Amino acid sequence: MDKVLFLAMTGARENMLAQQAHANNLANANTTGFKADLAQARAMQVFGEGHASRVYAQTERPATDVTSGTLIETERQLDVAVAGEGWFAVIRPDGTEGYTRAGSLQINAANQLVTGSGLPVMGNGGIPVILPPFDSVEIATDGTITVRPLGENAAELLVADQIKLVNPDPKTMFKGPDGLMTTGNPNPEQPDPNVRIRSGYLEASNVNAVSELTGIISSSRQFEMQIKMMKTAEENSESAASILKMS
């Protein structure tokens, strides 16, 4: 009985984790640059006395769907989207480097270029991008930021910085608890000159709402099956106990 109960319990646990992943994806279906999480579990044989006829479910590191979302034109100067492969580098609160494709950029009170969640955008020098007060700003396809300082004429242009654009091997990337992508390598990634961005555009989430809804329904039915297995194990145990009392 205990083995069946344990196997059903591990299956139910993985179904609950899958439900969480699908629900989180649906909640971020309209979040700029969001990448859908994939629910993963591995079937592992139970070895021990007797035949290895049982299989339990083991949690795998959640994977992320890194395919590109649709580019939406906004005509806003500080909205940028990566065209093709690549990521923006941002600075986490602990000082480490993270990667995102959420390009709804803003200027904070310290004149830093930050993401919509307030994280400083990293320049090619490995420090936050800081812009002087400006009348206009342009971001080139290679991430170079050119501004016309406040009060200057149209000919007085200043190259302020260049956004750090990277393109790590997708196989080495995973999503951290803060929602940023990372490689797990403590060394910063080198800028990739082949990554291109488009100013005036934002990348939509790559979540497929229909797929997520069907995933939730499928996980729910699998969870119900696991609960039935637990109840069956309980009934078998009660029947076995009754037989022992009679004897």
Q: Indicate the low-confidence ranges by residue numbers.
A: none
Strand content range: 25-35%
Q: Strands of the biggest beta sheet: in what spatial order?
A: 8-7-14
Task: Encode the helix/strand succession as letters.
Answer: HEEEEEEEEEEEEEEEEEEH
Question: What level of helicity do the residues show?
Answer: 25-40%
Estimate the global geometry from the Cα principal axes: elongated
Detailed description of the structure:
It contains two helices and 18 strands. It is an alpha+beta fold. The chain has a three-stranded antiparallel sheet, with no helix packed on it. Strands 11-12-13 form a three-stranded antiparallel sheet, with no helix packed on it. A hairpin with a 5-residue loop joins β15 and β16. The chain is elongated and about 100 Å long. It starts with a helix and ends with a helix. The mean pLDDT is 91.
Task: Provide a quick synopsis of the model.
26% of the residues lie in helices and 26% in strands. The protein contains two helices and 18 strands.
Topology:
Layout (H helix, E strand, L loop, with lengths): L1 H26 L9 E2 L2 E5 L9 E5 L3 E2 L6 E3 L6 E4 L3 E5 L5 E4 L5 E2 L5 E2 L19 E6 L4 E6 L8 E5 L2 E2 L7 E2 L5 E2 L13 E4 L1 E3 L5 H38 L1
Antiparallel strand pairs: 1-4, 2-3, 5-18, 6-17, 7-8, 7-14, 9-10, 11-12, 12-13, 15-16
Helix pairs in contact: 1-2
Descriptive labels:
247 residues, alpha+beta, 3-stranded antiparallel β-sheet
